[in-house]
Design goal:
- By secondary structure, the protein is mainly alpha-helical.
- It has 9 helices and 3 strands, in the order αβααββαααααα.
- It has a 3-stranded antiparallel sheet with strand order 1-3-2.
- Helix 5 runs antiparallel to helix 6 and helix 6 packs antiparallel against helix 7.
- It is elongated and about 55 Å long.
- It starts with 13 loop residues before the first helix and ends with a helix.
Length: 230
Amino acid sequence: MARRPGTATPVRPIAHQSLVDRVTDELHRAILNGDIQPGSAVSIVELCEQFDVSHIPVREALRRLESEGLVSLRPGRSALVASLSPEDLADIYRLRKLIEGDLVLRAMATMTDERLALAQDALDEYAEIEREPAALAAAHHAFHAALIDDAAGAADRRVLELLWHAADRYLHLLITGLDRGAETTEGRIDEHRHLLDLAIAGKTEELHAAWIAHLEGSENALAAALGSRD
């Protein structure tokens, strides 16, 4: 229907949008922290009562989480939290190796000092974090993005965000099963230092091989922790 002259264009209420954001953030945190366990069903009615909101923001929040692969909406008034599985973990890292491997090769053709400086800043922050999953994930993403983002298109970024968030969920839920040794932590930092050194030196093929090996190492560590958890 045509809008009458002089009338304002309808917009979504800001208060409602921020309410959806808050419910989404709370559910996301609860799923990543394991407060809502993988494979469990969540009741929309119970979530409405818990957050003291109507079903509308809860359903919208669950739809957002479904787009990230964290939940599956079911007929009726419930959703199922995605399970952890070796097959899912392998798929995540198979796709990461394909996409990030391609991007790092293309990014090296136009690598800048500014990008290298951003990667160094992210690595410095990463090295200071003590086993706090959310902060580790953010710094880790920033490091990877600094080196490959110039070669990434909009579709690349959307897919990578989904894959990185999916990998983060395994890190959050399995971090207690990962090796706690200081030498292991330092080893992970050294891996990233090596990647940055190769990028600074302009060694494209060596960087590509080291990047893939880094992803495979992460996958293997998480797979071992998942096996111990099961």
